[in-house]
Write a structure and sequence with these properties.
The complex is a heterodimer of chains A (about 60) and B (about 140).
Chain A (H helix, E strand, L loop, with lengths): L4 H20 L3 H26 L5
Chain B lengths: L10 H13 L3 H5 L3 H20 L12 H11 L3 H4 L1 H4 L9 H28 L11
Helix pairs in contact in B: 1-7, 3-7, 4-7
Classes of the chains: A mainly alpha (about 60), B mainly alpha (about 140).
Chain lengths: ~60, ~140
């Protein structure tokens, strides 16, 4: 199976944020909020770091 | 505010559940009747592990002399059954000559570490050092 870096990162972020939400929060409402926040944070930070490193890739 | 509860579970059951949870992700929580956690942990660890293997990630073995390979083995073995079924899930073995295989290696290691974290949480629940909300499931 061939997935590109972004697809792999999205699946990683989904699985890890869901697990972290259930590990750290008690109510379903808190878990959903935390999972969404963590998922978006994973993506934003990864894209941000990728963007910062872009000038060094050439 | 969620009602907090502390556990009064038989310590032997907790240890058995921890072993079961390591072997099959989520099974330990299922034995302690934390159904929603069991389902989420099984799928989170399972998806990462299977995807990592399908992407031809490297699976580290115990007979390595290199310290980093040994750390990789400790992470990989955390995924329990998926580690032992790695050869069945991906008979072709690892191929880190392509980026995809390298991503797979990381995904499989993440699955193992995540499962170890779930087992640790289970021990915290079982021995009563973690308070759970009413809807903790």
């Amino acid at each position: 199976m061939i997935l590109n870096h972004f697809q792999t990162m999205v699946i990683f972020a989904l699985a890890v944020s869901a697990a972290f939400a259930f590990l750290s929060k008690n109510t379903m409402r808190e878990r959903i909020r935390y999972a969404v926040w963590a998922f978006l944070a994973f993506l934003l930070v990864a894209v941000g770091i990728g963007w910062l490193m872009y000038p060094f890739s050439r | 505010m969620a009602e907090m509860r502390k556990s009064s579970i038989n310590p032997a059951l907790v240890l058995v559940a921890a072993g079961a949870g390591w072997l099959v992700p989520g099974l330990g929580h299922a034995l302690l009747q934390r159904w929603s956690k069991a389902i989420v942990y099984f799928f989170a660890v399972g998806i990462l592990a299977v995807l990592g293997l399908w992407m031809r990630g490297n699976v580290f073995s115990s007979n390595s002399a290199d310290a980093f390979d040994m750390l990789g083995f400790l992470a990989d073995i955390g995924s329990g059954l998926f580690y032992f079924l790695a050869g069945t899930i991906n008979p072709a073995g690892g191929d880190v000559s392509r980026a995809s295989g390298d991503y797979g290696t990381r995904l499989f290691a993440t699955a193992g570490v995540l499962n170890l974290l779930c087992v640790l949480e289970l021990l915290h629940i079982g021995f009563g050092s973690k308070e759970e909300g009413h809807a903790a499931g």
